[in-house]
Amino acid sequence: MAHEMPEWFIPKYKDEYKLRSEQKTRRLEGLAEEGGMFIGDDCFFPRLGQSETTRSSRMQELVHNQLPLDFVKVAAEPEFVNFTIWDPDIKKLNISMAGAFAGASVRAVNRARDRQHVDALAAAALSGVTNTKGVNETITTIGSYSVTATLELIAQAVVELGTSELFEGEDVAIIAPFKVRMQNSLDPYYAQAGELKGNRPWDDLMWRSYERLPGNGTAGEGWLAGGATGVDLFVHAKSAVMTVQNDDDTEINERLGSRMGNMYGRWFQSASAVVEPKGVIRVRSKLDFALLRAAMRTTAA
Known about the structure:
By secondary structure, this protein is of the alpha+beta class. It has helices at 9-23, 59-64, 95-127, 151-162, 178-185, 188-191; strands spanning 33-34, 37-39, 42-47, 70-75, 78-86, 129-130, 136-137, 140-143, 172-176, 206-209, 230-237, 241-245, 250-256, 261-274, 280-286. Helix 1 (9-23) crosses helix 3 (95-127).
């Protein structure tokens, strides 16, 4: 346990952490279905495939036409965020410091959960989706690292999803770098008044910007590192990706005698995985670009 910490500091940190985690949503919050089961450090997500009704009056036939069920297995490593307070600094702690440390912890946990979501999409794009029977399926990829992803290309990705009735009426999200999202928002047709306004298919997408998407960098980077010139965008149905957390975040509260300090923070274990490859479309795009279309007038001269 911590040594000579103010009696109020750790309870205050815990209260502030809980409050701030309830108030601050993740950047990619709500884009995946909750579910899954932990067995040790492995997580198993159910994969149901496309379900159809069965016409039969015989119970035996109904049994043989059951919904196909399998699992996608993912290893879930624990994630930690902790702070070490050196003994001379203990006297500098106050109420606002407890809030600052709690806020930093919440942001770290949220970034980790978002990273897991994107890592799951990137893994499916790289290696496909393998179930526990060893069957592997790949996701669909469109676009090119040498051409900027336009609204037309994004619309094509949505049409690709629509070819399977498995995702009828579902929430569909697109995860794109802020720069690409800004580029598309500057498209004159996007902002044009008139018949298009209020009847634009891309308005139904849940647009989320995330800067550290994969791409064609030397280590798979999709931002300006490793010589990256292209980036992956992902359009996916909500049920195609699943996530689960093993119970709640757990408190870290230990004395580090060799360092003459106290360590405290949080740790958790969670995992995300693509369970239905038909529900994910990877859109390759050029990373840097100029305005796609010349500005156009939307009112009379």
